[in-house]
Amino acid sequence: MKALILAAGYATRLRPLTDEVPKQLLPVGGRPMLDWILDKIRGVEEVDAVHLVTNSRFADDFARWAEGNGVVVHDDGTDTNETRLGAVGDLEFVIEAAAIDDDLLVVAGDNLFDFGLDALVGFWRGQAGASVVALYDCGDLELATHLGIVEVDETGRITYMVEKPSEPPSTLAATATYVFPRAHVPLAARYLAQGHSPDNIGSFVAWLGQQKPLYGFRFEGRWYDIGNHSQLLEADNLMRERTSLPQRESYSLDPASP
Fold it and tell me: Does a structural domain hold residue 9?
C-alpha cells in the first residue's frame, strides 16, 4: 500500500500566515501539522511508501520537512491559486508521476483526527475490494451545509453523497481520508477524462460510489478540517493541551510562544 498526503492548496483563508508558510507546515501543538499526520500513517504496517503533493511555491519548504522523514515530495508545477490542479488533479498527477499500481491511502494534509489509520485500513480490508471513506458525525445541520454529507445503509455502504448541501439529509460527514483498492486507483483518470471538476476530491469519491462499492468507516473523537483562523487556533490549543503546553488566546507561528 502507498500513502499520499494532499498539500497543494494555497490556503487563502489563512493569509497572512500562509503567505510564507504552507498551511500544512504551520505549527500545531508545538509541531508542524504534517508531523501529526505522518505519525498516523506510520501506524499502518501495510504502507511501504509515503508521497506528498504540493505546488511550486512551497515545494522547497516541503522538501526540507521531508528530509529524514522518508517522504517523496511531488511538485505539481503550479504557482498560484488560479492555476492549481485541484485535489483530484493532484491525485492523478501523483498516480502518474510515481507510477502507483497499488492500494492507496489518501489523507488531506490539513486534517487532524483522533482515530488510527490502522483501524481504517483494517475496516477496509473487510470490505472485499471496496473503497472506504472515513466518516464523522458533526451533529449539527448548519455545520453540515459546509461539508460533504453522506447516507449509508445497514451494511455501512454509502448510498448517497453530496457536497455542501443546502438541506443536509444527515449530519454524517465524509472526511478527506480515503482508502482506494488497486483496481479503483486508475478511475481518477477516467473521472477527469469525462470532464468532471478536478477541484474537490469528495466529488470524485461520490462519482466513484455510483459505479463501485463505497463504504463508510465511522470514527469517534475529534476531527479538524483546518480551513480558517478560528479552526487553526482551536486545533492548536487542543494539541497543546495534550502535550502539556500552555493555551493561547491568539495563534502564533512560533511554536514556543505562549
Answer: yes
Q: Looking at the DSSP assignment, which residues form a beta bridge with residue 161?
A: 150
In-domain check, residue 126: yes
Joined together, the cell numbers standing for residue 160 give 448517497
**Distance separating alpha carbons of residues 134 and 98, to the nearest angstrom:** 25
pLDDT tens-digit map of 168-190: 988 999 999 999 999 999 999 99
C-alpha cell at 104: 492507496
| CA 15 vs CA 10, 23, 36, 112: distances in Å | 9, 9, 22, 20
Residue 194 lies in a domain: no
Categorize the per-residue pLDDT at 64 as very low, low, confident or very high, splitting at 50, 70 and 90: very high
In this structure, is residue 256 part of a structural domain? no
Residue 2's identity, in one-letter code, is: K
Of 40, 94, 36, 106, the closest CA to residue 65 belongs to 36
Percent of the chain with pLDDT over 70: 100
